[in-house]
Amino acid sequence: MNLITYNHSRPFGPYIIPISIQSSYLRMYCSNNNLTFSLPLTEYCVKNSYFALSQRVSAVLNIRKAEERITILTSSIYVFAEIEPDSTLFRLLDSPDIALIGILENFHGNIECCINLLTDIDRFHNLVHSPLS
Question: Model-level pTM?
Fold first, then answer.
């Protein structure tokens, strides 16, 4: 397995988590799951930017063995909320060989499941916070 640990340097979803805390989550998760921790890739602090992640995933796809899976480990799946389904990154991540893990949501799945869960969470949030008629 090729593990990419990934941090976001901007607010995402309901969270504003300092990079050092996100890195601690990732390190602890790796330790508890017998994974080799490496320093996380940190995304640029620009809205809708996934440049660093796109570059790393592309590089790993080019050097991995055919049967090896890629797992992207992040503190929260909300970091993927801004990805548009027709974007190059979505198409890159939409592969049976790429899995996502979001620690705070206890999420394990692919990009499509991730986006569907975020949509469901948003719908629930809107229901809970909508005024009663």
Answer: 0.89
